[in-house]
């Protein structure tokens, strides 16, 4: 495994820079989200990706020194060919199955990097607001890192997430309110006792971890990116991360300037980024009383909205909404046609592909990759009870 080629951090809003030796979280000048920047010349000389398995094959392009690399088997999830393209009349369609990660979701990638970095730079305790999978992933990596973690979760999150997070010995605080209220509580705790806040876009590690999905897809497709990527979007960390991954791969000479069109999918009942995209805005207003069965999409306000909307526009992408009913319907269709049992967020990608294929926006020449971002097994409460067959 190679050394990290991290050189500094740069603010995604005001372009101010910050050094890499301290456990810095947000921009010291304006408070905006920080992006990691690398010595790509140095990285070119290294062997990237290194041999082996998992996200640390890309450690030259991750902000984690060797001492922080927690090994739970993160990344190198399968990119599965399907027959979806044939029945929709689009090009070939693959599913990047992120349920194969530790804690059964792609949140593992971001937390592996964020917590690895925090540990290496001296964090003594951690805090995170989460509506589901992020809590489980943070709790698992915190346990592996030997760091205490507090999770602020809305009181109505499904039992599966709360039970799993507690099993890893996280302190789970149930909050009467939405994820934004949990975010305020986490921030207050960080200010009060110095716990490192892992909230998305409030520290630079989670984007870097999710970036490895883009690296893997490029590699798995023989360095020929698909024409369309469909991504279920809550705060949009993954949209920013995928775009950044491709920029870095191009700088390394591994891919050319071609880029996929990115499709952002949100729930009809909580779609602040889609609304902003459609209105031509560069920032998103908070969505009032956002609710959806897809816990990963229940994000009424993204701290990274400007970066997400910018990446989507540069990719000449689209933003679409799907209803909770469609997510459940397409979960069943995806499971029965592919053998992959998706979380509702993953099913939302298929619903969006159907919509855009009918419109002709995705055509027969367009190779498509969908993300199944987590396992359906944490959402069994959404399915008819098996003891009462329907
Ligand atoms: C968090 C989450 C998402 C949304 O990811 P972002 O990159 O934060 O937008 C999608 N699906 C699942 C299963 C999630 O847990
Ligand atoms: Zn700034």
From TrEMBL:
**Taxonomic superkingdom:** Bacteria
Coiled-coil annotated spans: none
Q: Which cofactor does it need?
A: pyridoxal 5'-phosphate
Pfam families in the cross-refs: PALP (PF00291)
The keyword Secreted is assigned to this record:
no
Instruction: Give the InterPro entries listed for this entry.
Output: Ser/Thr_Dehydratase (IPR050147), Ser/Thr_deHydtase_PyrdxlP-BS (IPR000634), TrpB-like_PALP (IPR001926), TrpB-like_PALP_sf (IPR036052)
Q: What is its EC number?
A: 4.2.3.1
The protein in question is named Threonine synthase
Q: Which organism is it from?
A: Natronospira bacteriovora
